[in-house]
Every structure is written in C-alpha cells, then in structure tokens.
Amino acid sequence: MFATAEDGAKIWCDAEPGPTPVLLIHGFASDSESTWVRTGWTRALAERGHVRVDLRGHGQSERPASGYAPEALARDVLAVLEETGLSTVDAVSYSMGGLVAWELAKLAPGRVRRIALGGIGGRAADRTSMRGVAEALSADGLDACVEAVAGHRLEGPPPVPVLFAAGDQDDIASDAPEFAAGLDAPFVPLGRRNHLNAVSSRLFKQAAADFFDQ
C-alpha cells in the first residue's frame, strides 16, 4: 500500500496486525525488504505486529527532488501511521532511520512509545560516510538525500525511552556506547559486526524485544 505525504509523494508501506505493533525504519541507501525481511526481523516480530516503510527515494517509494531532511522524512512516516491506522507503536530504526524515528517521536508525542536505535551514535551524518554506504550497497540517485541529511545528528534529550545497539566494528556508530551513556540510555554491543551487517544480529532483535516489554 501507499501513504500520501504532505507534498503528494507516494510512500510505500506494509502492515501486519498485532497487539503491540513495531514500526521499522531502515537506513540510508537501503529499503525495508533488505533491512527487515531478509534479516529475520519480521519473523521475530510476528506475534507483535509491525509496519514497514520505504523512506522516500528508497525502495518502492517515489523519488521526488526534495523532502529528505530527517524532519520531512518523519512527516512521511507519520502519514504512514495514519494510513495504517496505528495510533501507538514501538520503533526499531537503523542508521539514518534513527534520525527519522527521533524526529517522529518529537513531531507526534504519544505516537511512539520506545525506540531501539541500531547503527547510530551522536556524531552528525557526513557526506563521505553516506556516499560510502551508497557505494557499498550499489545504490544511486540519492544525492538529494545526502545533501539534506548531512550535518544532522540526534539532538536534545531523548523524546521517549531509547536503547542503542551497534557492532564493535561499526566505524559510523563507534561513539554509540559513550553517547548512550551520556543520555543514561542502555547500550547493547553486537560483537564483531560492522555497519552493514549488525542489523541482522540476533542479539539486537532480543534486546529490542526485551526493551519493548518493559
């Protein structure tokens, strides 16, 4: 199905009903299929329910020329929540998706209960790292997203309870343990994982489930 963003862009989404649905927000240059389905997240969340979204410019969503700043992407995701009829969700995000989840919780108080943030720390997104990820994932056509997201970071106090998780070899999120400690938030190390494969960690899935059960 598709939700319609404020500027008319069509944002692809898919929802599976359940008692405690989890919103899944992928990272830059990826999509919901590769981030959440192929890695086993949707199976792990089967009893809870979930909603997946392809951020604009990614996956099956439209690729308009603008609207890629984290707050704008969060408004797209809010349109997805409206389309799927979900009033309250927990959220799992990865990398750039963490910026979106953070902004969504600020934008729509009460709609997001808790967030498990993977592959992100406190440093600002930078063009070099983003382009490196796009090259590694063989993604193109994302220059507008790079320019809109570069320089953004997780700012202010957490809008809801948050958990951080990152691989020990994740250069992009290498400051996540210290950043989480500064926010008095839990951090889960994902062992010898890097930025591209930490999302599939079974430990990440279990930590998120336990966090949402609190």
Short structural summary:
By secondary structure, this protein is α/β, with parallel strands linked by helices. Helix content is 34%, strand content 18%.
What does it look like?
The chain has helices spanning 32-37, 41-44, 70-84, 96-107, 127-136, 143-149, 176-182, 202-212, and strands at 2-4, 10-16, 22-25, 50-53, 89-94, 112-118, 162-166, 187-189. The chain is α/β, with parallel strands linked by helices. The protein has an 8-stranded mixed beta sheet, sandwiched between helices. Helix 3 (70-84) crosses helix 4 (96-107). The radius of gyration is 15 Å and the shape is globular. 48% of the residues are buried.
Secondary structure elements and their pairing?
Layout: E1 2-4, E2 10-16, E3 22-25, H1 32-37, H2 41-44, E4 50-53, H3 70-84, E5 89-94, H4 96-107, E6 112-118, H5 127-136, H6 143-149, E7 162-166, H7 176-182, E8 187-189, H8 202-212
Parallel strand pairs: 3-4, 3-5, 5-6, 6-7, 7-8
Antiparallel strand pairs: 1-2, 2-4
Helix pairs in contact: 3-4
Q: Which oligomerization state do the chains in this entry correspond to?
A: single chain
Judging from the principal axes of the Cα atoms, what is the shape?
globular
Q: Give me the strand/helix succession.
A: EEEHHEHEHEHHEHEH
Whole-angstrom Rg? 15 Å
Low-confidence runs of at least 5 consecutive residues: none
